[in-house]
Specification:
Rossmann fold; alpha/beta; globular; six-stranded mixed β-sheet; 247 residues; 8 helices
Length: 247
């Protein structure tokens, strides 16, 4: 069983020494839709999310829609535990897996094999679990003998195949994604698509931010539309996509 419960959640980021950053403040005002204010101490704050309330349960496949700066990434990081609410409560019950940055923790000077252990550790895997699955990860990545070469010698495609192979070996109860992952050449893309589909099917709750109407309609059974850090709509993919993208 997995569940998510947000009650009147607000996330503020204080900006220090803001008095000398007039240009930066103007740029941030544009980027955040004007969500600038001040706290009780007079510090300038950026309000990334405001008054967010929702619940999710087993079987939910939730798409996040909204323009750049609407708060989608902040919400995903809140769900993953990177951020804490400034106001309100956020309760997440269940093991959370994040595919927000699959290259996080990859060391260019270490070998592919060493990086499998490094990335696996960041994903919460025990060393023995990585050892048990490492041959499967290497085979899936199609790196061959390059797995024992430094990652700095890899092409971009090889780097992504390694990161994807190890990042998708986990099977969390709650899966967070920022767009659908599709990496490699045409041959590898078919494998990647199959693995992503399997991963989504096995997770209890999926939360995915996307700008793709087709992906939202195909993958999700519910959509939350964020605008300037607030929830504008929460409903079915058909209703929200029609309102967001137009007919």
């Amino acid at each position: 069983m997995a569940s998510i419960e947000f009650n009147d959640v607000t996330v503020d980021f204080p900006i220090y020494n803001a008095s000398g950053r007039s240009l930066k403040k103007r740029l941030m005002r544009v980027a955040t839709g004007g969500q600038l204010g001040a706290d009780e101490q007079g510090r300038v704050i950026v309000r990334a999310l405001e008054g967010i309330t929702f619940s999710m349960a087993d079987g939910d496949r939730v798409g996040l829609l909204g323009h750049n700066g609407a708060g989608k990434s902040t919400l995903l990081r809140l769900l993953s535990g990177v951020y804490e609410p400034s106001v309100g409560t956020a309760r997440v019950s269940g093991e959370v897996g994040s595919l927000l940055d699959i290259s996080l923790g990859i060391d260019a000077e270490a070998t592919g094999r060493e990086n499998i252990y490094l990335r696996g550790g960041l994903l919460g895997l025990q060393r023995r679990d990585v050892t048990r699955q490492i041959e499967e990860i290497i085979e899936f990545s199609e790196l061959g003998d390059f797995v024992d070469m430094p990652v700095r010698t890899y092409s971009t495609g090889m780097h992504l195949r390694l990161a994807f192979a190890v990042s998708t070996v986990v099977r969390p109860q709650i899966l967070l994604m920022d767009e659908w992952l599709s990496v490699g050449d045409e041959g590898f893309k078919h494998k990647a698509e199959a693995r992503m589909t399997e991963l989504v099917q096995q997770t209890n709750i999926l939360v995915i931010a996307s700008h793709s109407r087709e992906l939202i309609m195909h993958t999700c059974n519910r959509v939350i539309w964020l605008e300037h850090g607030r929830m504008k709509m929460d409903g079915t993919p058909q209703d929200i996509c029609r309102a967001y993208f137009g007919e």
